[in-house]
Amino acid sequence: MLDLSNVSAPIERANGLPNACYIDEQIYQHEQDTLFRNNWAAIGFGKDVASPGMVKPLSFLDIPMIMVRTQNGDINVFQNVCRHRGMILVDAPQQLRGPITCPYHAWSYDLDGNLRKTPHIGGPNVDTLDSVQHCDYPLNKVRSHVWNDIVFVNVGGDAPAFTTQMAALIDRWHEFNQPLYHGGADSSLSFDLACNWKLAVENYCEAYHLPFIHPALNSYSRLEDHYNILDHDNYAGQGTTVYAPQVSDTGARFPTFDKLSSKWDTGAEYVALFPNVLLGVHKDHYFNILLTPDGTGHTHEQIELYYTDPLALSDDYAEMRATNTRMWQTVFAEDISVVEGMQKGRKAPAYDGGKFSAVMDESTYHFHKWVARELSV
């Protein structure tokens, strides 16, 4: 195992995570087995199973899973295998008109995972068998929680309750505990990054790179207008004091969240919630970014934009939504060459994890310490 003790040294003396944490397959697998399995990690969005009966299959930690919207509007996450012979139940997102039915022998389950029918299990036209009591064979449920439309899972099952573990950020943003409305097809973005997932987190945590990588953004939201956020163990990021959206030539604005304190008149915050969620909160819209690792050197980044009022989803705001999406697409695209360049740099054997600025890199250092601790478990 790597010696990561120096990563947790005081920032003035610390080095960042060593190259192996970005390019070594064994370290990548160790991450899957520890920090992704033991913590609350994101797997998807509630908007992808918007109505009762909608299901979406996915793979997380090589485990086949399905997200399911129940009749009462809740979201369940199950292992996507039939309890009979382990057949995959659902192979594509879809709207079900009935139960979740195995395509192999037609065992079927309701949206809460309960086994309901076992056709011919006792012979032709005999649908019951004493040795297979339905109540004993529900779908295997994955511990999950939905917050701000992000679906989180704790595969290991031993993490504190989500609202306990994430209490600090939930409290920090308690004013935004209001309904969110996804902006629709024009409010979804995705990128495939040729980099380790951690580099996307590290880059997002800090504002140090703004003048050099985001010159247009820095022209009105300057480096000196930003501050670091690292007041709790499992998140870090940065905020701005000069948020002033310009998405319409007419001066029109999106509706804003209700009853926000004056801080948010011109404030916005951007936080990485460890391990794999990036968040942005503003007075008039919110975004979620899900990072899905795919090996040591590839990451899928899915970005979803939300608004504060159904009015913002109307045709009257369509052009403004599209402008807002294009603005964020430009900003996020500007980061691609940076994170991919750092990934290439991790092949340089003399690189020792790098040197932090004790002023500008505090949030990134905070993330490195978290990873080092989790990998040392």
Automatic annotation (TrEMBL):
One MF annotation (Gene Ontology) recorded for this entry: oxidoreductase activity
Sequence ranges assigned to domain Rieske in this UniProt record: 40-153
Residues passing through the membrane, by range: none
Cofactor or coenzyme needed: Fe cation
Keyword Membrane: no
Any matching Pfam family: Rieske
Keyword line: 2Fe-2S, Iron, Iron-sulfur, Metal-binding, Oxidoreductase
The protein's name in its UniProt record: Rieske (2Fe-2S) region
Originating species: Puniceispirillum marinum (strain IMCC1322)
